[in-house]
Design brief:
Blueprint (H helix, E strand, L loop, with lengths): L4 E6 L5 H14 L4 E6 L3 H5 L8 H10 L1 E4 L13 H9 L3 E7 L13 E7 L9 E3 L5 E3 L5 H17 L4 E6 L7 H13 L6 E6 H10 L6 E4 L1 H14 L7 E5 L4 E5 L16 H13 L3 H16 L2 E2 L11 E2 L2 H10 L34 E11 L5 H9 L6 E8 L2 E4 L11 E8 L8 H13 L4 E10 L2 E2 L8
Parallel strand pairs: 1-2, 1-3, 3-12, 5-10, 8-9, 8-10, 13-14
Antiparallel strand pairs: 4-5, 4-11, 6-7, 11-12, 15-18, 15-19, 16-17, 16-18, 19-20
Helix pairs in contact: 1-9, 1-11, 5-6, 7-8, 9-10, 10-11
The chain binds nicotinamide-adenine-dinucleotide.
The site of nicotinamide-adenine-dinucleotide (NAD) has 19 residues, from loops.
Length: 484
């Protein structure tokens, strides 16, 4: 008999305890081999004055078991509370968010009966890194971070997932026609990693038209991998149009740790009435069973659940007169699934899971950065000056030319404003002044930049930050300026 696997369980708030009890009853009924450590998270912990919503001793349990089955929590109203999901994700390095969005037509109403897609969302980088600044009264900025290693991990995860789950195609969504450097890197790495998966079809969409296509014809997609922000938005869209927000589970996977949950919240108005649908959390738990290498149990649970749904045993949220057979509460739904353990669905396709091969997501040494030459070729200095007159700012900045570097161009809000400003360009109070070599030799030195900043400070010009401009193997590692 294989050993039990320790997992950490949190029952959460609102409907959380009811759907977790139902889920655990089903897992027990299927013979899942688990040793459960229960922790408390969420509202009660927040209201005890713990801003993170989780105690240190609970974190220790997560670090010990490395597997977290989590019910939804309620974040109390008012400021000062940190998102528990973001904390857990960052603390445990959960870089991949995996969200299957499946239609269960005709038993659950949906406009897209053939929909069966999996969204794999990068979970740690992008605009979610939370690197934001305000340096002038008018302008705020956020830095979008896309790393080669982070992208390679998530893209590799998506391809491995596709292979393991018998899926045929992986699509990348990004916007590299606009964000040529950041989303450009995401796309490039998708292409590089994809070469190692000749058995899987590959496809790339610009996120706007891709999202429109997904909302209109989701059957055209299989696995879709995306950077964090697009993935956040589109995984909600996908779950919604599948007709099954209450039915979708999600996995957050890291190199060492993993967390499994439903995608919905704690639905406080439905709590303690034996009403809630436990399916989202249960399908999250199915992913957990695969993760902890109990694929046989995962298959048993998933098939019994499909059978229950096609038998028309439905909780209130998916109950439809004429289509459903029996309206049940949370507990009765769990009992119905347990009663079908060992049965296969007859209308839906039965599922089967195989052992998850150990993640091959470690960075491929061969693909990591083969840049030979990194040359400093300029600096963008962000200067605070009232909006309006680009020529005034331009004349002011020309006065600090010297020592082999000179002003090349000024932009505001990303658009060129100097030299030769157009009359109607709207500016903010933050001016990006690009200085480059004044000689035939494009490479400059950090000392030249320090000299420039010294002259700017001496002239009393308020500057907020300086971004170095590098060429990598002769190719610019900075965006060109719109209109320049
Ligand atoms: P919600 O997902 O809790 O509820 C949205 C709607 O869906 C409600 O009408 C609810 O009754 C229904 N619903 C959700 N899950 C259901 C289920 N399993 N069975 C039947 N009906 C279900 O979203 P909300 O109302 O915006 O948020 C409520 C609380 O949940 C908030 O405090 C929010 O911060 C929190 N939340 C937590 C998580 C999480 O812990 N992962 C995620 C989202 C929201």
């Amino acid at each position: 008999m294989p050993a039990n696997i320790p997992i950490t369980v949190a029952k959460g708030d609102g409907i959380g305890p009811e759907i977790m009890d139902a889920t655990l009853e089903i897992l027990k009924g299927a013979g899942a081999r688990l040793d459960i450590e229960e922790i408390e998270i969420g509202e009660k912990v927040y209201l005890r004055g713990n801003a993170a919503g989780i105690e240190r001793s609970s974190i220790d349990s997560l670090l010990r078991t490395k597997v977290f089955l989590k019910a939804p929590i309620t974040t109390p109203q008012g400021g000062g509370f940190k998102s528990l999901n973001v904390t857990t994700r960052k603390l445990l390095g959960l870089y991949a968010n995996v969200r299957p969005c499946v239609a269960y037509a005709p038993y659950v109403k949906t406009k897209h009966p053939g929909m069966d897609i999996v969204i794999v969302r990068e979970n740690e980088e992008d605009l979610y890194a939370g690197v934001e600044y305000q340096q002038t009264p008018d302008e705020t900025q956020a830095i979008k971070i896309i790393t080669r290693a982070g992208t390679e991990r998530i893209v590799r995860y998506a391809f491995d997932y596709a292979r393991r789950n018998n899926r045929k195609k992986v699509t990348v969504f990004m916007k590299d026609n606009i964000m040529k450097i950041t989303d450009g890197l995401f796309h490039k790495i998708f292409d590089e990693v994809g070469v190692h998966y000749p058995d899987i079809e590959k496809e790339a969409w610009i996120v706007d038209i891709g999202a429109a296509k997904m909302a209109d014809t989701p059957e055209a997609f299989d696995v879709i991998v995306m950077p964090n922000l697009y993935g956040d938005i589109l995984s909600d869209v996908a779950a919604q149009i599948a007709g099954s927000v209450g039915l979708a589970g999600s996995a957050n996977i890291g190199m060492k740790y993993a967390m499994f949950e439903a995608i919905h919240g704690s639905a406080p108005r439905r709590a303690n009435q034996n009403l809630a649908n436990p399916s989202g959390l249960l399908l999250g738990a199915v992913m957990m069973l695969v993760h902890i290498d109990q694929p046989d149990i995962a298959g048993l649970v998933h098939n019994a659940w499909l059978r229950t749904v096609e038998d028309g045993i439905h909780t209130y949220d998916i109950f439809k007169e004429g289509l459903s057979q029996q309206k049940v509460g949370t507990k009765e739904f769990a009992q119905a699934v347990v009663a079908r353990m060992g049965q296969k669905p007859e209308k839906f396709k039965p599922v089967s899971y195989t052992s998850a091969p150990k993640q091959t997501a470690d960075v491929h040494a061969a693909e990591v950065v083969t840049v030979q030459q990194r040359d400093l070729v300029g600096v963008d200095v962000f200067v605070y000056h009232e909006p309006g007159d680009p020529n005034k700012v331009g004349r002011m900045m020309e006065t600090v030319n010297g020592d082999g570097i000179k002003l090349a161009v000024i932009s505001s809000r990303g658009v060129k404003t100097y030299p030769d400003p157009l009359p109607d360009t709207i500016t903010s109070d933050s001016w990006r002044c690009r200085f480059q070599s004044a000689t035939d030799h494009p490479v400059i030195t950090p000392q030249q930049i320090l000299g420039l900043l010294g002259r700017i400070a001496a002239a009393g010009i308020p500057w907020g930050k300086a971004e170095h401009l590098y060429n990598f193997d002769g190719k610019p590692g900075f965006s060109s300026i719109q209109g320049h």
